[in-house]
Amino acid sequence: SKSFFTPGELPGEGWHLISPGTIDDLDELFSSHVGIESVAGWNGTTYAIKYRTPPSINPHPILTSTQAGLGYWIQSSTGSVSVTGVQDFLPQDLASYNLGDLSGWRLMGTPSKISDLNTFFNTLPSVGVIWSYDSVSKEWMAFKRGDEVNKNQLNEQFEMNFKSLREIEAGTGFWIFLGL
Asked: Is-contact 136 11, C-beta < 8 A?
């Protein structure tokens, strides 16, 4: 049984790591989806967030839009919210995406399924590991370059338990680490 949502479909309340595509104005998303409480993104250097009801103090920049090819954390307070944006980005486009010269974490996404992670890794030679979050089971999944996850090594390195990531579903956000 698949525990992922169809592209853009949030399976219930809580946090979801998705790739909704390009949404030019997050205010429109909030006004048309009462169950969405916040949308957060990380571009490798900056964390930005948009809240339905902003806190009195927000130390982070306000996220105003989403970009195809990137992943986002979306918090939903209700079940089954559909989020759609313009998907003008393909998995192979990640190879040409500007990941920057810095090592570290990037929050990426894909509008279509990636079934062969080893081949996908060949398009991104500086990526060492991919992490994804299953918002239904509330579990992390990982795939490390060169093998289907040496769970003991990654469990020790990241001090957490996780499932092996076998493929990335369409509309899913995922973390990549550059330089591992």
From this structure: yes
